[in-house]
């Protein structure tokens, strides 16, 4: 009898958890935290890692000798002004050219995630109408978990590019289905605004933690460690989804609007444009700032990661502030 009573208590508690809107909000927020941690953890890691695999015998910094060159040292002269050009100057100039050339490949890799997500978002939206929100949400976890493991053990540009592109699909599944799930569970406008603010706070928290986490871990532990930690955290979130969300097919009763009507909606266009401009600045900095810091400052890996903290902190404050503020003042 005691065993049956314990099982009944456990089942009742589990059912209450599954019906809790707050726990759904927690699951969505955790998924967004991990997705955006992976998004930004790679920022201080990938540029230097790609430079290292392309130039395994060349350091990123060169010490300038304090002793004068020996008498038999043959220097090169700049014929324009007669200044002396040492081998260190030549090596530094070659390193500068290599780093500037790498900016393009890093930018393409970082942009692949957003490009794939841009294509996947409408498809995931259609999928949520046909099967519900829980299956795409869990699919996003699976894809993100695989992407994180590929980042951990990938050693070539092509493999890392694949991991970044895969993350775009996983991020689309998590964000579209997660936000849709919150909109369904919070029909009241004020509650929905607060819930969205908390969920986007999770997104901002991931953006805040990711760069310093990646830079510090890469500096003191290595490239593999931060991604293994992220994969372990993602696995925990996946187990939580299995336990509480119980992924299954739940077809929506309301017929969704057509893609054409959504694209022609002026409010959607304004919101999409605002989000685009808001993210353009940080998107431009991600592939260029770490490389510039390596080239001009000789910055350490952890310093490259910490340099993104001011923007991330203001983003975190804004997401938690403008949800309630938008309800009081109007959006």
UniProtKB/TrEMBL annotation:
Looking up Pfam families in the UniProt record yields:
MFS_1
Localization recorded for this chain is: Membrane
Q: Which GO terms describe its cellular component?
A: synaptic vesicle membrane; terminal bouton
Record's keyword terms, sorted: Membrane, Transmembrane, Transmembrane helix, Transport
Task: Give the membrane topology.
Answer: Multi-pass membrane protein
Domain of life the protein comes from: Eukaryota
Instruction: Please list every transmembrane segment annotated in the UniProt record, as residue ranges.
Output: 23-46, 131-153, 195-218, 224-245, 266-285, 305-325
Coiled-coil features, chain-numbered ranges: none
Q: Does the keyword Nucleotide-binding apply?
A: no
Q: Where is each Major facilitator superfamily (MFS) profile domain found?
A: 24-331
Question: Biological process GO annotation list?
Answer: aminergic neurotransmitter loading into synaptic vesicle
Q: Which PROSITE patterns match?
A: MFS (PS50850)
**Has the keyword Transmembrane helix been applied to this entry?**
yes
Any idea which GO molecular function terms this record carries? serotonin:sodium:chloride symporter activity
Annotated PANTHER family = GH10249P (PTHR23506:SF23)
Q: What name has this protein been given in UniProt?
A: Synaptic vesicular amine transporter
Organism of this sequence: Cacopsylla melanoneura
């Amino acid at each position: 009898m005691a065993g049956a009573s314990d099982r009944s208590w456990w089942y009742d508690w589990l059912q209450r958890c599954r019906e809790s809107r707050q726990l759904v909000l927690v699951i969505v927020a955790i998924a967004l935290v991990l997705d955006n941690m992976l998004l930004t953890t790679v920022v201080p890691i990938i540029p230097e890692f790609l430079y290292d695999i392309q130039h395994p015998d060349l350091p990123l910094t060169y010490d300038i000798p304090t002793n004068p060159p020996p008498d038999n040292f043959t220097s090169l002269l700049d014929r324009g002004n007669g200044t002396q050009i040492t081998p260190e100057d030549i090596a530094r100039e070659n390193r500068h050219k290599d780093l500037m050339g790498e900016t393009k490949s890093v930018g393409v890799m970082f942009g692949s995630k957003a490009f794939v997500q841009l294509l996947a978002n409408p498809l995931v939206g259609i999928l949520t109408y046909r099967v519900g929100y829980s299956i795409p949400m869990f699919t996003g976890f699976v894809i993100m978990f695989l992407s994180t493991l590929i980042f951990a053990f990938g050693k070539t540009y092509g493999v890392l590019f694949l991991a970044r592109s895969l993350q775009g699909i996983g991020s689309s599944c998590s964000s579209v289905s997660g936000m849709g799930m919150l909109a369904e569970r919070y029909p009241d406008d004020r509650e929905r605004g607060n819930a969205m603010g908390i969920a986007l706070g999770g997104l901002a928290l991931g953006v805040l933690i990711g760069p310093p986490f990646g830079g510090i871990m890469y500096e003191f532990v290595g490239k593999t460690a931060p991604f293994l930690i992220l994969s372990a955290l993602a696995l925990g979130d996946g187990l939580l989804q299995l336990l509480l969300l119980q992924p299954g097919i739940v077809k929506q009763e309301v017929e969704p609007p057509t893609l054409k009507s959504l694209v022609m909606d002026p409010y959607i266009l304004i919101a999409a444009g605002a989000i685009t401009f808001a993210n353009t600045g940080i998107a431009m900095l991600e592939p260029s700032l770490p490389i510039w810091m390596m080239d001009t400052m000789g910055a350490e890996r952890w310093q490259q990661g910490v340099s993104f903290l001011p923007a991330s902190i203001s983003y975190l404050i804004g997401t938690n502030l403008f949800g309630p503020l938008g309800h009081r003042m109007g959006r």
